């Protein structure tokens, strides 16, 4: 194996998040504006062959875990073909998918056969009317059907991602926790992040995840630390005593996890992002066909990767050491 992808702070990067499209069939309130979103033209989006070429280089440097994101990755035609290409690359051990679940039920079996091992499904409300409001038109029945189909085809683990927003879905914490008491699922509560919209609207909806543990205490539920579910990354994991499932807390704002960061991002338009929050990007498309040039770009990205993302300073409107990205989450790949 060639030299591992290690940054200035000794963090070894073995995980690449790949956005395959900036388009989405929903308009979730924390991710995209309702109108006026400008999407990349088709010719600006990386081809499957280009993505595979980058992954082949990184696999030689120890990258063994991939996650396909968007936008909504399942709006990309023939995604199963890309999955098969990536799973055939020596060194790649795990391919995960993050999806809103609207199209997953009909494609889960094919994705599993192609090489997807696990899925994260966004589910920000269990109430049909509220789900439609948060997603601006989503049908929760399709998402719940995708959860069931994911269980049937054998994705493991299955994680449900809940972006917690004050005054919007914080009254459903108990309902999500109850799911873990009934089924072997992992519910992950995620703090609302200021990606692409550092404004007072974001601050007014931000809620620290201490609220989840507080609800457990109110309900008299004993909470135990749980072993990390495979691929859970920055999540702190818990189990309500006796529950078959677990829940995780991902709190990038109130308690950042940057000291253990092992991930890089590749945007749909071919940019390497060493950190989700900062504006720094390096376009890799121009290097396709020159493996040495691809390597140099990734090591250059690691050389400038900051020690942390300073989202807490954004909450407090304090000065930051770098420039936050103006790109929306859908343009980066969540």
Describe, in plain words, how this protein is organized in 3D.
With 334 residues, the protein is an alpha/beta fold. The chain has a single domain (5-332), classed as TIM Barrel, CATH 3.20.20. It is built from eleven helices and 14 strands. It has helices spanning 48-59, 79-87, 104-114, 128-135, 140-153, 173-182, 200-205, 210-218, 291-304, 311-316, 329-332; strands spanning 5-6, 12-13, 15-19, 65-69, 94-99, 118-122, 158-164, 186-191, 223-225, 236-240, 246-250, 263-266, 271-273, 282-283. It has a twelve-stranded mixed β-sheet, with helices on one face. A hairpin with a 4-residue loop joins strand 12 and strand 13. Helix 3 packs parallel to helix 5. The protein starts with a strand and ends with a helix.
Key phrases:
334 residues, globular, two-stranded antiparallel ribbon, alpha/beta, 11 helices
Radius of gyration: 19 Å
The tally of beta strands, per DSSP, is 14
Which structural class fits the helix and strand makeup? Answer: alpha/beta
**What is the spatial order of strands in the main beta sheet?**
9-10-11-8-7-6-5-4-3-12-13-14
The CATH fourth-level homologous superfamily = Aldolase class I
CATH architecture field: Alpha-Beta Barrel
Number of domains: 1
How far apart the termini lie comes to 29 Å
Number of helices: 11
What general outline do the C-alpha atoms trace? globular
How much strand?
15-25%
The poorly predicted ranges are 311-316
């Amino acid at each position: 194996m060639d030299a591992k992808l290690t940054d200035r702070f000794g963090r070894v990067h073995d995980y690449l998040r790949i956005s395959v499209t900036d388009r989405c069939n929903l308009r979730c309130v924390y991710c995209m504006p309702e109108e006026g979103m400008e999407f990349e033209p088709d010719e600006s989006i990386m081809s499957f062959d280009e993505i595979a070429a980058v992954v082949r280089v990184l696999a030689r440097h120890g990258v063994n875990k991939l996650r396909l994101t968007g936008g909504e990755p399942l709006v990309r035609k023939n995604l199963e073909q890309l999955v098969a290409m990536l799973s055939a690359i020596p060194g790649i051990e795990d391919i995960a998918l993050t999806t809103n679940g609207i199209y997953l039920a009909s494609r889960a079996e094919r994705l599993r056969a192609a090489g997807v091992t696990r899925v994260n499904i966004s589910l920000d409300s269990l109430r049909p009317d509220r789900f439609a409001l948060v997603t601006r038109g989503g049908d929760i029945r399709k998402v719940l059907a995708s959860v069931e189909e994911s269980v049937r085809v054998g994705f493991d683990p299955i994680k449900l991602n809940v972006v917690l927003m004050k005054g919007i879905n914080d009254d459903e914490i108990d309902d999500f926790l109850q799911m873990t008491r009934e089924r072997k699922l992992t519910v992950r509560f995620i703090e609302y992040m200021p990606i692409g919209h550092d404004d007072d609207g974001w601050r007014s909806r931000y809620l620290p995840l201490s609220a989840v543990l507080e609800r457990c205490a109110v309900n008299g539920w004993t909470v135990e630390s749980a072993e990390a579910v495979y691929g859970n990354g920055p999540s702190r994991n818990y189990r309500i005593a006796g529950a078959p499932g677990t829940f995780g807390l991902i709190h990038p704002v109130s308690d950042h996890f940057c000291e253990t960061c092992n991930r890089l991002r590749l945007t749909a338009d071919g940019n390497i992002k060493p950190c989700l929050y900062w504006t720094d990007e390096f376009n890799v498309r121009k290097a396709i066909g020159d493996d040495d040039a691809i390597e140099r770009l990734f090591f250059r990205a690691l050389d400038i990767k900051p020690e942390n993302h300073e989202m807490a300073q954004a909450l407090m409107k304090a000065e930051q050491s770098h420039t936050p990205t103006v790109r929306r989450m859908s343009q980066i790949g969540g």
